[in-house]
Amino acid sequence: MGILPLALVNAQPKQGYNYTRYTVKNGLAANHVKSLVEDSNGFIWLSTLNAVQWFDGVNFHSIQQGNGIHQLPTINKVDVYALSNKQVLFVYSQGFSIYQPQTHSFNHYLLKENKINPIFLKDTGNIFYFLNGKEFLQYNIDERKITTSINLSNKVKSSFYIVSVEQKNDLILLTDELGNDIIIDTKNKIAKNFSALTPSQLSYPTSNFYNANTYISFSEKGIIKRNNTTGGVISSINFSSNPKPEIKSIVHNEKLSENIFVVTVGKQILVYNAATNTIVNEITTTQKEAILQTGYTEVIYVDSHKNIWLCSNTQGVYKINYLPNRFKYYTPTNNATDFSIEVEVNKEDNVVISGSYGQGIFIYDTTGNFKKQISIIDKQHPELTIVTSIEKIANNEYVLICYGSANSLYKLNTKNYTITPLKIFNAATQKQILSVNGSYYQKLIRAGKDSFYYQLTNGNLFLLKIEKDKAIAVRTNAKNLIPFVKHKSTIVGAIEPGKLGVFNNNILKVYDVFSKDITINSMAVTSDGVYCVATSAGVYKISEEGKFLAKFTKQAGLANENIFSIAVDANNNIWCGHYKGISKITSGGSITNFSEEDGLQNNEFNTNAVYKTNDGELFFGGEEGINSFYPQLLLSENETLSLKVVELKAGKYFNNIDTSFWNINELKLNFNNNIIQFVFNAIGKQQPTAYNYQYRLRNNYTSWINLQQNNSILLTLQPGEYYLDLDASKFFDKNAQPLKTIKIIITPPFWKTELFIVVCLLLLVVALIYLIQFFNKIKYRKQLQELKLQQQLEEERKRISRDMHDTMGAYTSALLSNVQQLKKANNVNEQELNKMQNNAEQILNSLRETIWVLNNQSITVNDFSDSFKNYCIKLLQNFDYINFNVEENITNNKTISAQTAIHLNKIMQEAIQNIIKHAQATSINYSINCTEKIIITIEDNGKGFITDNMYKGNGIENMQWRATNAAFNLNIQSNTKGTTITIKQN
């Protein structure tokens, strides 16, 4: 078998990629990682010398030792492998365990044959293939026993250390430490041995299948394609300079796609195209340095999103975000730091110029290669190193501003890398302007080929005409205007504090559209003349007339509101730099955020450090250099994400329970556990923190709520049924279709359940019916008793009335008759007889009233008033000098009890008798009103009496007592003109 000479490969280009490093500081059990794979959920499983962990994209979770379904029998020297059915295999000296991603549990299988340290080769679902020493084993997982054994002693050298294992269909490819390959045909149970063609001295080579007929051997010397059947060489390439690892280590390889392999040789990470047999590029940091600085690569793995996982023996785990080169990176390679605060690009001159803070000028070509750093040192003014503005004036000639001192205008030649100062003269006075104190953030705004607007002294805006070795400055009327952008013939800028200035035809207009605490940092103009303003409080869109059109803040989806730089692309999308990367705002208001995890130089970009080329490429300057990109390339990216709930807390539920939260689609909790916290991660090409999260709670919130980079929510839910929708993407989408939906049921307390309420209502109805019947019976019995008692009382009252009428009435009448007879006799004291007659009459009247009460239970107001009027008329017949006047207003002829009528009648009779006896009155006015209440008034025109002593007599005191018992209020008013007695019902 002949050996083809190795074709020499030219030095491969270095391509910077973004990556994330995980160490013990991030929760990794140890920085030496032995094996790593991905499960069907997108989670990463890895093992160290004495630990097994899984990684959800943010946190590392450790597996405990034990025999339970969430434990492993051992966590020491465990190797992790991915199975064909997307489950995960853990192999250890006693046997192996299979992890079920859907249930987050393990099944354990122990080898009874006392095999030691088996090496897993491949599986077919129910058949596993292992290598134990030099013996090839077939293990039937259903029968839990070894069913086939092939001894490979005659196929291998005396030393047999397996470096790599690959499988394709029925073939298994093994490579030992010397580079010898063995292909095992598991179907026909035969093995072939192919000797190494280029024995390695510095590293252990590995091999991998390319297609059904070809496999590839990788070593530190080069790459060889070989025939699967014969082992013959098909093609080969040689590396231009052989890497020399610090320690003899394995040359790892892993497939990125059908034709693309990633290969680690020493500290180099190479991308190899098997179809063209070429090295595509070398994967480095964005600074074009090796990602792994010390130690060696232990494992390399490519996940389902084409992320490259590199595990080292000392530096932990690196996750390399293998994305297309969307962001070009400009950074010096001379250990200097390009804190870029000004960017100028000219593709005709093939230069990208960066004006830095404190480091002078950095010059790159347009492909990103660093060319030159030029320090700006003025012996008079050594501080002139803050380059704030750069503009082209001729081929390879640029004018620049160094902020902070006199003679701050310079001319730069990018062909011979020279800088010369330019003096500035006032066109009006022809005197040199020695002090330039413009704003630190302002730029030269081009007015013509070699003329620019710039604020020079005391807030005055000048037009600078650049000549060979000087500049002529013409003052304008734009006082305190810091120019930012030119639109047609209009200069637009900021006038502090927070005002927009528009300068045209030497006339300055000021628009007060911002509050005083808002700082304007940068400006751009859309194709239709809308001013896009980057401020300390978000992005504003202002019309040419100075009217507010729109505002974008964190609430709208921006990662940060302190916007430093801004540009507008050909489609009027707004691109802005800030503390947390770069954001894109579409004309419809949709926002996408890009960060360091997307490949940016840093998350922080600088004020007004932005440039747009004629072909639409955008350049943004930041703390560690410049990023450039074509907007249309970023807009075309389409990524498929999965979203996993990795943590859930709800009262007493899920506390310290190893649960597959990502499989929960329905959650049923009682009302005592209605405070629920969800933590969820988006799994894709980038870190979970690079995505924008949003949620909505259907049956409660009607629209999506933007969480931005926050991947946790806390809900307090009332009893009911809800649907929680979760979504993640690069931007907030108001019309998103959820990646995950969880049905949540909060059960109410039993006393609020429908069944309990129905039962209670039924019991209440039964109780009400029973109570109604019970009280109706009591009421009926009471009414019956009252009716019987009433009948008895009525009979007794009639009996008493008859007896009193028959006896006391007869006796009283006889007494009166006797008094009349005695008056006719001689020698009888007539005065005493009159008293006896009067007393007898009173007894008779009282007896009549008593009989009347006994005979009547109630009386109408009309009858009562008529009775009183008859009494007065009869009494006043003997008092012709007293006029008796009556006024009645009885609209409600209601009834009053006989007892009340007696009390009122006695009060009124007492009042009439007192008037006759004491008042010396000539007129008595009686009135009665009865609408809602009864009001009785008796008024005379007598001499009156002193009201202070009115309660000392028994008569008035009895009147007051009777009024109280009758539930009436008695009021007596008296003066020398007469007395008024008012009796009013309470």
Keywords:
single chain; 986 residues; alpha+beta; eight-stranded mixed β-sheet; disordered N terminus
Considering DSSP H and I runs of 4 or more, what fraction of the residues is helical?
10-25%
Fraction in beta strands: 35-45%
Spatial extent as radius of gyration: 54 Å
Question: Uncertain regions: pLDDT < 50 for 5+ in a row?
Answer: 1-9
Gross morphology: elongated
End-to-end gap: 131 Å
Total number of β-strand segments? 77
Please, what is the average pLDDT?
86
Largest sheet: 8 strands, mixed
Oligomer: single chain
Helix/sheet category? alpha+beta
Q: Spatial order of the strands in the main sheet? A: 40-41-42-43-47-46-45-44
In short, what is this structure?
With 986 residues, the chain is of the alpha+beta class.
Description:
With 986 residues, the chain is α+β, with helices and mostly antiparallel strands. The protein has seven helices and 77 strands. The radius of gyration is 54 Å and the shape is elongated. Residues 1-9 have low confidence and may be disordered.
